[in-house]
Write a structure and sequence with these properties.
218 residues; alpha/beta; Rossmann fold; 7-stranded mixed beta sheet
């Protein structure tokens, strides 16, 4: 996979949306900008806030979520980058708060911001980091994604944002696969115990090699 040259964080502009679940992409980008000592500048012509990092361009689209591609697509083509060089960080209701997953490509999965990006980048083959924001449960979807995190969720969120930042830095340095190998950790499955037939006593551990019979008394 080509080296990352553009990093996009998805979200909605304005103070009203600053701490909402839908804006975790912006949150990660702000962390990266602080890490790089980069300054955000509003580019109205390009419909985004831009900051320059070491060999990468950071982008926070200001088009609102559903039209994110209108900002990113033209910038990618202006610099003649490929979609594989564009990393996108965004929220995902499929994962609980505190978890994330790296993916090399794939569908939008119902996410309107990703639908716009896929349309304007010309396909699904670009890497992404999906940051879990939890499922809405009984809540209405729009209210959930535009709502803020509960106080007990904040520590998990901060830990996940830090992981997303570190995953991005590793991806920039060593490539997507290295980052995926480290951060897409699969939980080990516990071996399933075979059910014991009713009425049968459990065999002793040394059943295969039973002890020799005692010697007959003289």
């Amino acid at each position: 996979m080509s080296s990352i040259r553009i990093i996009v964080g998805l979200g909605n502009p304005g103070r009203d949306y600053a701490e909402t679940r839908h804006n975790v992409g912006f949150m990660v980008l702000d962390r990266l900008a602080r890490r790089f000592g980069a300054e955000w500048k509003l580019d109205k012509a390009r419909k985004g806030e831009l900051a320059v990092g070491p060999g990468v361009l950071l982008i926070k689209p200001q088009t609102f979520m559903n039209c994110s591609g209108e900002c990113v697509g033209p910038i990618m083509r202006y610099y003649k980058f490929d979609p594989e060089q564009v990393l996108v960080i965004y929220d995902d209701i499929s994962f609980p708060v505190g978890t994330m997953k790296l993916r090399a490509s794939g569908s939008a999965g119902g996410h309107n911001g990703m639908k716009s990006l896929i349309a304007h980048l010309g396909g699904e083959k670009f890497p992404r980091i999906r940051v879990g924001i939890g499922a809405p449960g009984q809540k209405e979807m729009v209210g959930h994604v535009l709502g803020k995190f509960a106080p007990d969720e904040r520590p998990l969120l901060e830990e996940c944002l830090a992981k997303a930042e570190e995953a991005t830095l590793l991806m920039m340095k060593e490539g997507f696969q290295a980052a995926a190998n480290k951060f897409n950790v699969k939980k080990e499955k516990k071996p399933r115990k075979k059910p014991q037939p009713e009425g049968e006593a459990a065999a002793p551990e040394n059943a295969e090699n039973p002890p020799p019979p005692p010697e007959a008394a003289e």
